[in-house]
Amino acid sequence: MEKCSRGFALYEVIVTLSIMVLLSTLALSYGASNRAQTRILRDEAAIVSYLGRARALAVKGYTAGETICAYGVHFDAEAKTITLFEDKASPCSAADYVRGAGDGDVETYALNPQVSVTAPSDITFVPPEVVVRVMPSGLWPAMVSLATGSETTNIEIYESGQITTP
User: Fold this and answer.
1) Among candidate residues 34, 28, 31, 26, the one with its CA nearest the CA of residue 148
2) ∠ Cα 36 42 44 (to 5°)
3) 87 in any annotated domain
4) Which NCBIfam families is this protein grouped with (predicted)?
5) Do the beta carbons of residue 106 and residue 121 sit within 8 Å?
6) pLDDT average, residue stretch 118-125
7) What digits encode the pLDDT tens for the residues 125-145?
8) Is the residue at 28 inside a domain?
């Protein structure tokens, strides 16, 4: 005799639902823990991009006698912004290598308000050899630290202009 079975047994349904609940819980907790890391990585990429642009502009844009003496990145921890700027002085030997009233802002980026940034106020790339100036002066490599909750990352800038991330 053939036994005709319709539907699923109760234990099959319970096991299937348990697996679905477990996978949903894992997916939700994984997404929540990655939000903090995503915030930091987005701001880290923006900072590295601005530092790289300043360095490239210093190499490319150097013309002897021009009033743009350096390109740099200004970090404003209170406003949570970074600004790519042109350090202007005439003559360049009088340049202070910090963002000031007479300097030109090229572009400003608003950092995520949930990310705390610890950095020198200005990192400037001086052409033609691309010498890096950090204000206020400190130890090398210059360090930019980003943190949110338990997630942290560092960006290092060396005297030679090399920019590294972990």
Assistant:
1) 34
2) 100
3) yes
4) IV_pilin_GFxxxE
5) no
6) 87
7) 888 777 888 887 767 788 888
8) no
Whether the CA torsion 7, 10, 12, 15 is positive or negative: it is: positive
Q: How far apart are CA 163 and CA 158, in angstroms?
A: 7
* 3-state secondary structure labels for all residues of 4-52: CCCCCCHHHHHHHHHHHHHHHHHHHHHHHHHHHHHHHHHHHHHHHHHHH
pLDDT digits (tens, 9 = 90+) for 32-89: 667 778 888 888 999 999 999 988 888 886 555 557 888 889 998 888 999 999 888 7
- State both tokens at 115: 């990310």
Instruction: Please report whether residue 142 resides in a domain.
Output: yes
For the domain that residue 114 is a member of, what is the CATH number? Answer: 3.55.40.10
Is residue 71 within 8 A of residue 57, CB to CB? The reply is yes
Total tally of structural domains belonging to the chain: 1
Range of the domain at 101: 34-164
| Full-model pTM | 0.76
Is 66:47 a contact under the CB 8 Å cutoff?
no
Mean pLDDT of the chain: 82
